[in-house]
Specification:
The complex is a heterodimer. Chain A is mainly alpha-helical. Chain A has 7 helices and no strands. In chain A, helix 4 packs antiparallel against helix 6. The longest helix of chain A has 42 residues, at 132-173. Chain B has a domain at 183-261: Rod shape-determining protein MreC, domain 2 (Thrombin, subunit H, Beta Barrel), CATH 2.40.10. The chains are: A mainly alpha, B alpha+beta.
Chain lengths: 174, 312
């Protein structure tokens, strides 16, 4: 059963991004910047760190595909960028896993990589003509701050989930 | 970074880039209908989203109500002054309606472009990355919703149905700035109505762009913009907004206007999907309006073709 805990948790974050966040923090014409929640990515990066690159890419690409189909109309953008981000953030070292700061640093850089990649892909296919400076001020920076705070809240509970999964797996091995 | 770009990984990266390009190509090519796996995924997540969004809307609404309590007095004063206006307006509306009915009887025309039926739907998601501006609603093709139908709130038009699956559909808001996002609109003037197109959102000036207004048209700031009903499935007379500024376009051949939207695109909870009941224009009306400009006709044909493709 514990096997399904992780996908279920990420699916909850998926709903949080598209439905709950949009209801409680509706976009407003007065705001100069966009608040884009990337809670799912936080979980995907942590999966990558604690479960290895393989699981990270699988979860990232899978939920990226779901994101593409349900929330956007162009399939492939999030599937590719989330998979790629999960892959490059797979720092599976013991010292990284044990600390709180390292996962946080990796998550923040992963968020920036994802924002940049989605911006680049939309720019290539003609979905936007935003300049890089505008993109950085309007999207990347607010997203980094907001999702950084979300990451601070999420890292500890997720570390507990991974520890629990590991415990159960070790029990099954015996 | 653990053995980062070794040969095998490089090949894998190449393959995934090829897959990415082909997927993007595939999904931008046929954007009118969606395939069954997509429909299935949207429907299943749609069920969960409906379950989650209903109580969430209620909670958000409750906090909104608490904030409203502090403004009740001012609002009450304003509404009282509006009431008198409303009474005279509704009397006028009643007489105009009767007159319209008798006139229609005289020319034996049963249906008009402004007749429609509505279906109410709950907003279940909104695209969280703001690259596109779309919302999801919990009514799909099983409920009779189909592509390109108009979607409104009580204040006015907000967008059109982009894709449908069995139990959910996505709505492209007017504020979405994709090139295909265009609505045939008209400006209600004292004389002849002026036809033009709403083409997307102006990011800098925060308003909808009304383009291709004929240069001899008599248009002022503050006039109402409504749907014309000439293109596609939209009925006539849905409010879009009011004109706030007017300038000649880059070639000086026509005017562009900035329209302040009547509806609020930001706090959406319950929306109505509108189906026009009259299938086509009356012959006589078509002749009158069709000759006005070639552009209008061609885009109308385009729209109708798209509709035909969607429903077949």
């Amino acid at each position: 059963m514990i096997r399904f805990a992780l996908p279920f948790f990420i699916f909850l974050l998926f709903l949080l991004e598209g439905t709950l966040f949009q209801i409680f923090v509706p976009p407003s014409p007065e705001r100069e910047f966009y608040l884009v929640p990337r809670f799912m990515l936080i979980a995907v990066v942590l999966t990558s760190i604690y479960r290895g690159a393989g699981s990270g890419v699988l979860v990232g690409a899978g939920f990226g595909l779901l994101y593409d189909i349900v929330y956007t109309d162009i399939i492939g953008i999030y599937m590719f960028s989330m998979g790629f981000t999960a892959y490059i953030s797979a720092f599976t070292y013991r010292s990284v896993r044990a600390s709180f700061l390292w996962p946080f640093v990796i998550i923040v850089s992963a968020i920036f990589v994802l924002e940049w990649m989605t911006y680049g892909l939309h720019y290539i296919i003609g979905g936007t003509d935003l300049l890089f400076e505008e993109f950085f001020m309007m999207r990347a920076l607010p997203s980094l701050i907001m999702n950084g705070i979300a990451a601070l809240l999420l890292i500890y509970p997720m570390q507990r989930i991974f520890a629990k999964i590991r415990e159960v797996e070790e029990l099954q091995h015996r | 970074m653990p053995h980062f770009f070794s040969n095998k990984r490089l090949i894998l990266l190449m393959v995934s880039i090829i897959v990415l390009v082909s997927l993007i190509g595939f999904s931008t090519r046929n954007n009118e209908t969606i395939t069954w796996p997509e429909k299935f995924l949207r429907d299943t997540t749609g069920v969960v989203q409906s379950l989650v969004s209903r109580p969430a809307h209620m909670t958000a609404g409750f906090f909104g109500n608490v904030a409203d309590i502090f403004r009740v007095y001012e609002e009450n004063q304003m509404l009282k002054s509006r009431m008198e206006e409303f009474a005279s307006l509704s009397a006028e509306l009643e007489t105009v309606k009767q007159e319209n009915a008798t006139l229609r009887e005289m020319i034996d025309s049963e249906s008009s472009l402004s007749d429609y039926t509505t279906r109410s739907a709950l907003v279940i998601h909104r695209s969280p990355d703001k690259w596109t501006d779309m919302i999801g609603i919990n009514k799909g093709s099983q409920n009779g919703v189909s592509e390109n139908m108009a979607v409104v709130t009580p204040e006015g038009l907000i967008g059109k149905v982009e894709t449908t699956s069995e139990f959910t559909s996505t709505v492209q808001l007017l504020s979405d700035d994709s090139r295909a996002n265009r609505v045939s609109a008209m400006v209600a003037t004292d004389g002849e109505p002026v036809y033009a197109f709403i083409e997307g959102w102006n990011e800098e000036q925060e308003g909808l762009m009304l383009r291709k207004i004929q240069s001899d048209a008599e248009i002022e700031e503050g006039q109402q913009v409504i749907t014309s009903g000439l293109g596609g499935l939209f009925p006539r007379g849905l409010a879009i907004g009011t004109i706030t500024s007017l300038q000649p376009d880059e070639y000086g051949l026509s005017y562009n206007a900035l329209v302040e939207p009547a509806a609020d695109y930001y706090n959406l909870e319950q929306v109505n999907v509108i189906e026009r009941t009259s299938e086509t224009l009356d012959e006589t009306i078509q002749q009158e309006t069709g000759g006005e400009s070639n552009e209008e006709q061609s885009s109308e044909e385009e729209q109708q073709n798209a509709d035909g493709g969607g429903s077949s």
